[in-house]
Amino acid sequence: MKLSELEGAGFELPADLEAASPPEARGLRRDGVRLMVAHKSDPGQLEHRYFADLPSLFEPGDVLAVNTSATLPARLEGTIRGGATAAAVHLATPRPDAPPVVELRHLDRVTGVTSPWLDASPGTVVDLPGGATVRLVMTVREGSRLWLADLRGVHPLLAYLARHGKPIRYSYVPQEWPISYYQTVFADIPGSAEMPSAARPFSTEVTTRLVSRGVQIAPLVLHCAVSSLEAHEPPSPEWFRVPASTATLINTARLDGHRIIAVGTTAVRALESASDGAGLVHEAGGWTELVITSERPARVVSGLITGWHEPGASHLALLEAVAGREVVEASYRAALAEGYLWHEFGDSHLILP
Fold first, then answer.
1. Is there a single domain that holds both residue 315 and residue 205?
2. Cβ-based neighbour number of residue 271 at 10 Å
3. For the chain, which residues score pLDDT lower than 50?
4. Domain assignment of residue 265, yes or no
5. Are residues 345 and 204 in the same domain?
6. For the whole model, what pTM was predicted?
7. From residue 123, how far is each of 43, 146, 228, 245 by CA, in Å?
8. Predicted pLDDT of residue 235
């Protein structure tokens, strides 16, 4: 399994490797999912563990950079004006202070399953619950399925979403689950369209054992946009904030020779957006368009906890920038062979220096 094969249009994930429901619905604890451990120093050394084993893999002084963004019910269901066609609207930037960016999707009212709406036109209006509307204005870039939109009747936005919204889900999750299943143990600041899912397997018990072991938790925020992008489309701009206390903690730990492990690609993007050319982290915030690749490699993080996702180019490029091509290829080959479950309710991947 080469990266070129994973990126290719012909790659199809076997249906039995798609996590169709949360671990709790499969008789597991959150931290009961599987964990593959990879080592950058030896790409062939892969360990097959469980997420509950995570504390034993860390050393006192290591830092875990965690995203404290909370997931919003950012999916709204409605009807195309002028007909009876059902539609779902995914809010890619569900923040009151952000320009509305949305994705329009076909909706099956019976199953609740959605699919991409690839031939939408500017001016299309969707009537939403409670008298609200969304009108498509223009795509954010040529060929994108994301639209700048005119969103009306939804203020205050967070209250409207709490009343009428649902968590964003895709066809591999056939059943609706409450928004609580889409929150991580670190969730604090509402703003993500989709869950920062790398942190989902953390439980209170695992986090307590990590802290007791001397591992430091460095909080930051990056509000995740929608993940349903076209292949090779760059990730959307996302709002982030790295506080001064986190910047100081990480810089001090690196100076003392400790490892900085990001929980999720979102944490990588936030930290690297707040770093300078020397890899020092500074207090920073705002919208980031940074894309981590081999041309702009990671300067701050030395490792990563992530999940298994159908690999778009940006996700694989970031993994390769952090871990190296050999580690990514070996890990994905083993994940397929060993039956690891993919997507936000699936298994985990820890990449260590």
1. yes
2. 27
3. none
4. yes
5. yes
6. 0.94
7. 51, 14, 22, 46
8. 80
In this structure, the strands spanning 63-67 and 348-352 are unpaired
The residue count of the chain comes to 353
Residue whose C-alpha is closest to residue 237's, from 261, 264, 270, 212: 270
Quickly list DSSP for 106-169.
EE-TTT--EEE-TT--TT-EEE-GGG-EEEEEEESSTT-SEEEEEEES--SHHHHHHHH-B---
Task: Say which residue the tokens 């399994």 belong to.
Answer: 1
Number of separate domains in the chain = 2
Which residues are registered as beta bridge partners of 74?
Answer: none
- Helical axes 313-323 vs 325-337, angle rounded to 10°: 120
Q: Which domain holds residue 129?
A: 75-164
Task: Supply the pLDDT for residue 336.
Answer: 93
Contact criterion met (CB below 8 Å) for 318 and 12: no
Dist. CA 152–CA 130, nearest whole Å: 11
207 and 310 part of one domain: yes
Q: Across the strands, what pairs with 105?
A: 88, 116
The HSE-up count of residue 311 (CA atoms within 13 Å, CB side) is 25
Residue 224 shares a structural domain with residue 300: yes
